[in-house]
Each structure stands twice: as C-alpha cells, then as structure tokens.
C-alpha cells in the first residue's frame, strides 16, 4: 500500500505563477495540491481548514505578506490545534533575503528562489516534509547571523540536556544529517534519531531547522563551530 501523498498548499498573488507551480507539483509522484491562496490572510485560513503538509509561500504579497502569514501559521494556539505538522517554504526572487531569514525564525523550513527548477522544487518539498531545511547549512547560518543584533541566554531547558544530547545538538546546529552525526559519534542512526527527538521535546522545538535557529538566537553556534 502506497504512502499518502504530500499535501501542498500554494500561496502567491500572481495567478499565472501559482497555476504554473500547481501543474508542476501535481505532476510529481507522491504529491498533490490541496488548495491555493492569493494572499497571506487566505493562506492562514487555508492552512487552518486544509491542514496541508507543505506550504509554498510567496514572501512578498499585498495586504499580508508571507513573513507575517508564516508567523500566524506557527502561532502557539494554531500549532496546538493541529492534528498534523505543517512545513512552510518561502518563495523569493532574492538570494539570502533578510525577509526569508525572518520567516525562518517564525517557523519556515527555508526558502527557494522563484526561478528554481521543477526537480529542485520537488526535492525541496520532500526535504521539508521530513523536517529538514531546504538550503545549505552555511547559507542558513549566514541568513540567521545577518539579522541578529541581540542574543538571549539559553532557556533553563537547555541546561537540562544530557552530555550526549548536547553533542547531538552541536552537530545538528552545524547542519549535519543523522547519518553524518552517527559517523561522528560512532553511534547508530536510530540512536541519533532518539537523541534528536529528545532535543525537540525538551527544547519545545518543531524540527531540526528550529534547532539551528535556537542555536543562533541563544549564542550557541560557537559551541557547534
């Protein structure tokens, strides 16, 4: 029995672009477009109603842009009300966009340029659906560091991590995959997955992208460097 298709919501204020992306996504095996939206307000409503797996979110739209829409999608009350996780990928025309960095801090799993290829788009949807970022760790770090002026001390929960969990945290913050972490720590991948799950639970984070954000916002990147 085949797995359920990845449910995708498309958000863009340009009809032609939106419909073009719909054709591309619907042509991919294991994916289906469950809805579209032309502005941020409609996007938030559609996420609440349809509970898609992945949202492709235009970052620049009138009335309510993709940054604010992403913030609202990941508001604590909305996250708590969902029966399934949602991932957001913001779409932009500018590489290393400061607005994309803000959207990532609000919960997005990365960004894509609007001139990305169909294969890159397909791979990005699959990647974020598994909880990973859709841009290289170095680019993610550049984005996050560029907009940070003040860092706060780590919450008390960080002090509660075990020594092994801190090792895994450092390696996730560097952007290493579970396979790479397993090799670095001479451990099995299943063990690494268990530690990552514990990190997400103890630090109240949604996915490993948010671990990277957490590390930067609390000045823990030096540990990972």
UniProtKB/TrEMBL annotation:
Keywords from the UniProt entry: DNA-binding, Phosphoprotein, Transcription, Transcription regulation
InterPro entries: CheY-like_superfamily (IPR011006), NreC/VraR/RcsB-like_REC (IPR058245), Sig_transdc_resp-reg_receiver (IPR001789), Tscrpt_reg_LuxR_C (IPR000792), WalR-like (IPR039420)
KW Transcription regulation (keyword) present: yes
Family annotation (Gene3D superfamilies): 3.40.50.2300
Domain HTH luxR-type per the UniProt entry, residue ranges: 154-219
SMART domains assigned to the protein according to its UniProt record, in alphabetical order: HTH_LUXR (SM00421), REC (SM00448)
Name of the molecule in the record: Response regulator transcription factor
Organism field: Nocardioides nanhaiensis
């Amino acid at each position: 029995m085949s797995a359920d298709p990845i449910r995708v919501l498309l958000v863009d204020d340009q009809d032609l672009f939106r419909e073009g992306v719909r054709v591309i996504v619907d042509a991919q095996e294991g994916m289906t477009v469950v809805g579209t939206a032309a502005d941020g307000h409609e996007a938030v409503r559609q996420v609440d109603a349809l509970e898609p797996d992945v949202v492709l979110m235009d970052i620049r739209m009138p009335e309510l842009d993709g940054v604010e829409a992403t913030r609202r999608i990941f508001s604590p009350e909305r996250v708590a009300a969902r029966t399934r996780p949602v991932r957001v990928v913001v779409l932009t025309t500018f590489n290393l966009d400061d607005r994309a960095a803000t959207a990532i801090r609000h919960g997005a799993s990365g960004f894509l340029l609007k001139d990305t290829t169909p294969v890159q788009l397909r791979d990005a949807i699959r990647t974020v659906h598994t909880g990973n970022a859709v841009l290289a760790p170095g680019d993610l770090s550049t984005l996050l560091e560029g907009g940070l002026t003040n860092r706060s001390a780590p919450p008390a929960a960080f002090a509660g991590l075990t020594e092994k969990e801190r090792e895994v945290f450092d390696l996730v913050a560097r952007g290493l995959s579970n396979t790479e972490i397993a090799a670095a720590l001479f451990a099995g991948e299943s063990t690494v997955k268990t530690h990552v799950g514990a990190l997400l639970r103890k630090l109240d984070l949604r996915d490993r992208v948010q671990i990277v954000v957490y590390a930067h916002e609390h000045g823990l990147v030096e540990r990972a460097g």
